[in-house]
Specification:
Strand 20, helix 11 and strand 21 form a beta-alpha-beta unit. The strands form 5 sheets. Strands 1, 5, 17, 18, 19, 22 and 23 form a 7-stranded antiparallel β-sheet that branches. Strands 7, 8, 9, 10, 11 and 12 form a 6-stranded antiparallel β-sheet that branches. The protein has 517 residues and is an alpha+beta fold. It has 16 helices and 24 strands.
């Protein structure tokens, strides 16, 4: 599907993505033997080599150290040509000479030396957990980058990996109530559900250990284990009714696709993109097609913050048989990639399709919206999207944390980048005075040149503030949660899919021809 591939995971998502409840997959990563030198030598390599825009390493390091010493107001970090100085009340305590090049190992050594000097000067900082000091250092450095490069500490990184890639377990979420642990959620058709465990069941024993009084981390460590292994549990609505069950663990990827069928129209809501999204969309639509021919499908991407990029490409390929899906370009040679639709992957080439978007549709979800719109394959209804058109390269660090580095910008098939400007809908529900009747009338009319003007603004943005302002004013990027615009979008989608002639007319009149791009 991609003509060029690179090592490392490519992910798109908002800075603050969804966080799972306290499920079995949240296991802290032990990294007692990781040194500061090793951690930062691994981290500095993608920063120096992959970052979309190069950073000035002395300032990066100084700002990270300033975040660390902020705990002690008497300490300060001063910059001088070729060196950094640690001060207390204006007096020099220590200094380090800065490397003259960007070799990661040299900058990591300087970082470790300064952190040791800081801890020697400040008992309050020395008493903090290593991970807390490292997190402060990374957070300070990330402030010098773009708004999407970030550091995810080990527990959060583990949760996010589970969301993207899945985890080995039995498929339960656990919570405490009245001093006891109980099952809060179940993965549908997961091992725990198949064994007869129900939401609300109390957990009394795991692997022969009584659950009452156990720390949460200890309990989840007992439940979790390698794929194919077994865990014995005693669970039930009460202790008197508890049963002893043996459950086999397997690899589970959360299903982020919610599907429904009403009057021949399938609604597919994608909450975020993980390693199973493309397959889950395909399976949902095939199940409905087996019952009766579909009149159309609504792909609901409202509120979707993004996720795994190649899964977004795969979802587009389900509906598009050929042509460019996206292009990515950055500073690193390997960031230049292009993704083409492959005919054997296409399962629904002729299914009438409408995509619902809003101001919280971001990243991978914007890839889907832009590609389907440019291909003339779907009508987009709603508000302009968030406008995050960049790719993060993910590096797993030795302490179990992850470093997300923005390394390329995304370009739609028609050549524009939706970074900052977002993807414009075919029919905008967020403008003042918008209504179902007015937008249905608009859908039936010829364009009259407005889309050609829109295309010019798209190509000028995101580096032209005036073009971005024009696009944002044309269709404000509002969230659809609980609003009249959300209901309006759903009504428009069903009306258009219920009227094939009007749908085709709207799709044709709202599409920018290749010659106009």
């Amino acid at each position: 599907m991609a003509s060029r591939l690179v090592s490392g995971l490519l992910v798109l998502g908002l800075l603050t993505g969804p966080v799972l409840a306290r499920d079995e997959q949240q296991i802290p990563v032990a990294a007692a033997n990781v040194t500061t030198e090793h951690l930062f030598s691994v981290a500095f390599r993608p920063i120096t080599e992959n970052l979309l825009k190069p950073v000035f390493m002395p300032t990066l390091l100084a700002d990270g150290l300033r975040r660390v010493v902020a705990v002690d107001r008497r300490l300060a970090i001063a910059e001088a040509p070729g060196r950094l100085i640690l001060q207390r009340d204006g007096m020099e305590l220590a200094q380090v000479a800065l490397p003259a090049d960007n070799v990661p190992e040299r900058w990591a050594q300087v970082t470790a030396d300064m952190l040791r000097a800081v801890e020697a000067a400040a008992p309050a900082i020395a008493a903090r957990e290593r991970e807390t000091v490292w997190r402060d250092m990374f957070d300070g450095m990330m402030a010098d980058m773009d708004g999407y490069s970030r550091y995810a500490e080990p527990n959060r990184a583990q949760t996010e990996r589970s969301q993207r890639e899945g985890y080995d377990g039995i498929g339960i979420g656990v919570r405490q109530r009245d001093g006891l642990y109980e099952v809060a959620s179940l993965v549908p058709e997961g091992p725990a559900a198949a064994a007869g465990i129900k939401v609300g069941d109390r957990i009394y024993e795991v692997a022969g250990v009584r659950a009452a009084g156990l720390a949460y981390e200890r309990l989840t460590a007992l439940i979790q284990g390698p794929e194919g292994s077994w865990v014995e549990m005693r669970v039930g609505a009460s202790e008197g009714l508890a049963q002893r069950l043996t459950v086999r663990r397997r690899h589970l990827v959360p299903n982020t696709v919610r599907a429904s069928l009403d009057d021949g129209i399938a609604t597919i809501r994608i909450e975020r993109f993980n390693n199973a999204t493309q397959d889950n969309v395909r399976q949902a639509l095939l199940r409905y097609q087996e019952k009766a021919p579909l009149r159309g499908a609504v792909l609901d991407l409202r509120g979707n913050p993004g996720g795994v990029m190649v899964q977004a490409v795969g979802v587009v390929n389900l509906f598009v048989q050929q042509g460019r899906i996206i292009t990515t370009r950055g500073r690193h040679p390997s960031s230049v990639q292009w993704f083409e639709a492959q005919r054997p992957t296409t399962a629904f080439p002729d299914l009438p399709l409408i995509v619902l978007i809003d101001g919280q549709t971001a990243s991978s979800a914007e890839i889907v919206a832009a590609a389907l719109q440019d291909a003339g394959r779907a009508l987009l209804i709603g508000a302009s999207t968030f406008g995050k058109g960049s790719v993060q390269h993910v590096t797993q660090l030795p302490n179990g944390a992850e470093l997300f580095i923005t390394w390329s910008r995304i370009y739609a098939p028609s050549g524009y980048s939706f970074d900052k400007q977002g993807v414009q809908p075919s029919l905008c529900t967020s403008r003042d005075g918008a209504s179902v009747d007015r937008l249905l009338s608009e859908a039936a009319l010829a364009d009259g040149g407005a889309l050609t003007a829109l295309a010019r603004y798209r190509l000028a943005a995101p580096d032209d503030a005036d073009a971005v302002a024009q696009l944002r004013a044309a269709c404000p990027a509002k969230a659809a949660d609980g609003s009249a615009a959300a209901t309006m979008g759903e009504q428009l989608a069903r009306t258009l899919l219920g009227n094939p002639v009007l749908y085709r007319q709207a799709l044709s009149s709202r599409h920018i021809n290749v010659a106009e791009r």
